[in-house]
Amino acid sequence: MSSPTPESNLLFSRNPATGELVGQVAITPVDALPELVARARAASGNWRTLGLEGRVALLRDVGDRLKARAEEVGALITREMGKPLSEGIGEAHDCADAWREELDEIARALAPDVLEDPRSRSTLFHDPLGVCVAITPWNFPLEMAHWMVLPALVAGNTVIFKPSEETPLTGQLYADLLNEVLPSGVLQVVHGDEVQGRALVASDVDLIAFTGSRAAGRDILGSAGARLKRVILELGGKDPMLVLDDAPIEAAAKFAARNSFRNCGQVCVSTERIYVHASIHDAFVDALVAEARKLRVGDGLKGEVDVGPMVAPWQRDHVLRQVSAAVAQGAKVAFGGEGHYDNFVMPTVLTEVTHEMEIATEETFGPVAAVVRVRDDDEAVEKANDSPYGLGAVVFGADERRAADVGRRLNSGMIGINRGVGGASGSPWVGALESGYGFHKGVEGHRQFTQLRIVTTRQPLPAG
Ligand code: NAD
Question: So where are the chain's domains?
Fold first, then answer.
């Protein structure tokens, strides 16, 4: 929970559970950006010349440094944005433990490819684009930065990184760890809010890699498009879960509770709407309520807590407003819906939700599971696809083949069958429709930080 105070030129980071001041950073003045961009461009040449292997070698041990500080980093994440401490530490470990594997995967993706036919031999180079801006959100303040900054750097770009104004200290710490080994000017940090974000997008850079809301993504595409700048946009979601008539009810309810309420629902692939076959609707709702009842809400730093606070009052107010509006339009509160205090919103299960309600169509990003009763698979698919978002989707059904067939009919980028949406190791993270415009991770994702160049010679090469 942070507040820019332009008068003092400082950005204060506060713990959303307690209001405690966690720390502060200096806001980067917008008129300082051209100099930062010039510095990034000046550092580009040597960074590029170091080559893929050189860059990977330089960055190889940074993961160990992060691992050694995982508890400290995890506690900082919790203090800045509220998630339970175990999840904050888990986020630090997720980045650190897979660091070398991730580097190797990026290096494999960016090594030149060769294509040959009887007359031609083409080498496909994945070259750096130049100066890359990375703008990130607060919900996974370390991981979202890591997913974009590392491949951008390994690809040979210099990077200007703007962490969310809600979590500036975590962003700064991540950059500081990298800067212990990086040459000067290769990675720079800009602090501030959308003012700095917009100014960076408008500045003389070559790629904007962005993870955040659909509204900001639209704004960025508009501005970048005017100059045909490259963009990678990973945007919001309104993920559906389909519970088919043969679904294992307990397992489906356990998954729904975890995936709707984890990180206080502040996850881009949170389960926000649940389409349940009428024949098992009531039993599923009872099981979901039983799971929601088990969750302990409180300060993530204290004891055993499953759900922390919302990141900030504005996010809490958005969630509570959507819930009240849905109830006024006829939704029923099966669990929660009251007992909220400060930035804490109780896990809430709504039933009798319809697509006339905003809560069924616009991202909530809070601990709310909105349940819709459907008559059959066709209605479930039709309603799930009635959305401009297309990030993830989940289908639960005992007949896995049938569930997978239903999954193939969904307009989402990542579809999990009887499980979450994350793909096998090496899979990209990809949104369809307005949830994604470009994507990252995996071979295809890493290559989006590069310019493809093809050099073709005659084959066989003439002698001499
Ligand atoms: P946000 O869009 O408000 O802010 C994200 C970042 O962009 C911040 O650093 C912010 O300062 C900056 N920003 C805001 N407006 C901007 C503009 N017009 N131009 C340039 N920069 C701008 O999002 P948030 O509240 O930080 O994060 C939550 C959103 O992020 C949710 O919609 C969530 O679904 C999405 N998200 C998506 C993914 C994914 O992989 N698709 C992952 C995490 C979060």
Answer: 3-236+431-455, 239-388+392-417
CB 157 within 8 A of CB 449: yes
Catalytic site includes residue 234: yes
Fold designation for 239-388+392-417: Aldehyde Dehydrogenase; Chain A, domain 2 (3.40.309)
**Would you say the CB of residue 135 lies under 6 angstroms from ligand 1?**
yes
Q: Is 242 in the pocket of ligand 1 (CB under 6 A)?
A: no
Q: Return the bridge partners of 417, or none.
A: 395
Bridge partners, residue 370, by sequence: 273, 350
Q: With 60 as the cut, is the pLDDT of residue 5 above it?
A: no
**Residue tagged 């950073």 (tokens):** 25
CATH class of 3-236+431-455: alpha beta
Instruction: For residue 461, report the distance from its CA to the centre of ligand 1, in Å.
Output: 51
Checking if the pLDDT of 464 tops 80, the result is no
Which pLDDT belongs to residue 303?
A: 80
pLDDT band at 8 (very low <50, low <70, confident <90, very high): confident
Mean pLDDT of 393-406: 98
Look at 12-16, 59-63, 224-228 and tell me which has the smallest mean pLDDT: 224-228
For the beta carbon of residue 12, count every other beta carbon within 10 angstroms. 17
Whether 194 lines ligand 1, by a CB cut-off of 6 Å, is yes
Q: How far is CA 176 from the centre of its chain?
A: 21
List the catalytic residue out of 165, 268, 272, 363.
268
